[in-house]
DNA sequence: TATTGTTATACTCTATAACTATA
DNA sequence: TATAGTTATAGAGTATAACAATA
């Protein structure tokens, strides 16, 4: 090990580095499907957990609502989701996966899962599960939709 | 736990979320010192590990060299580092911490360490160290300067 | 009056290309 | 000829403000 400042072997720094590194791997793994990481997340939230409004997508993805508009435009243009007026509140759109969108999502999840396996290759099976559990424990208090609805 | 797609409890997704979340905490913790996360990393690399050129900073931070110029400009303007011509190759700059820069760095590391402790509060001491080791194991093959010099 | 979604626009951040000085 | 650093500029990504429809 080189003569490094302790900062660079801290959990926080390595977490940041791991995040950005994995992010590039994800986007690379999704290029074949003409999909971005963000688009995949929208599909994922639309896939389960009840009706998804654009505002919900905005808070869950941590993105400005105006960005979600463009994001949903793209996904609707490629036929993966469709906007439907919410009958209970006609201001809202319900974002729903089309059959094509569901197939696309399944393929994308497979691609991302493979990328994750590559990324975590230095760890064995129990270590990978250990890491996952530690991250769940850390992030659950910070992701509202993990504990209940949002 | 809500009816969530498995994607959102995967190690990869949680890693991305943890990374971005911690990133905002870091920047918030550094505002009092008028410092950004990137500036802190430059100070950290200049603090140890031999002479640091701007090109080295560029590869280590994963930033375009033109961005490093502005980054170093800022740090030099506030008196935290200074550029010195490398006597062995006068094209290069050696980035060196000033005494003021070292003090600033020490303060910043304390602030970041506190933020990290807050962020990892859901974990106990052994769990935090376990997470750190798993991240070291995962990232060492991907960070050239971890194993030797770069 | 407040909220959802939308558009238009201004701002920030980043990358590209061209230049200098050194090698 | 190639490389380290710099500058100027164009492009992508983002946030801000104003608007229409609905509550």
Structure overview:
The structure is a homodimer of 150-residue chains. Chain A has 150 residues and is mainly alpha-helical. Chain A has one domain (10-119): Orthogonal Bundle (Arc Repressor Mutant, subunit A). Helices cover 61% and strands 7% of the residues of chain A. Chain A contains 7 helices and 2 strands, in the order H-H-H-H-E-E-H-H-H. The first copy, chain A, has a two-stranded antiparallel sheet with strand order 1-2. In chain A, strand 1 (81-85) and strand 2 (93-97) form a beta hairpin. In chain A, helix 1 (11-30) crosses helix 5 (99-119) and helix 2 packs across helix 5 (99-119). Chain A is globular and about 60 Å long. The relative contact order of chain A is 0.12. At the A-B interface, helix 1, helix 2, helix 5, helix 6 and helix 7 of A face helix 1, helix 2, helix 5, helix 6 and helix 7 of B. Chain B binds a DNA duplex (23 and 23 nucleotides) through residues 53-55, 63-69, 86, 89-93.
């Amino acid at each position: 090990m080189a003569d490094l400042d302790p900062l660079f072997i801290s959990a926080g720094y390595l977490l940041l580095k791991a995040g950005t590194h994995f992010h590039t791997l994800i986007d690379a793994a999704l290029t074949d499907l003409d999909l971005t990481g963000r688009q995949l997340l929208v599909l994922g939230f639309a896939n389960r957990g009840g009706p998804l409004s654009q505002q919900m997508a905005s808070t869950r993805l941590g993105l400005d609502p105006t960005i979600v508009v463009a994001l949903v435009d793209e996904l609707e243009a490629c036929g993966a989701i469709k906007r439907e007026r919410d009958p209970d509140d006609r201001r809202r759109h319900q974002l729903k996966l089309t059959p094509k969108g569901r197939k696309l999502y399944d393929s994308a999840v497979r691609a991302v899962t493979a990328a994750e396996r590559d990324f975590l290759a230095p760890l064995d099976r129990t270590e990978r599960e250990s890491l996952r559990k530690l991250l769940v424990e850390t992030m659950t208090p910070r992701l509202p939709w993990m504990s209940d609805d949002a």
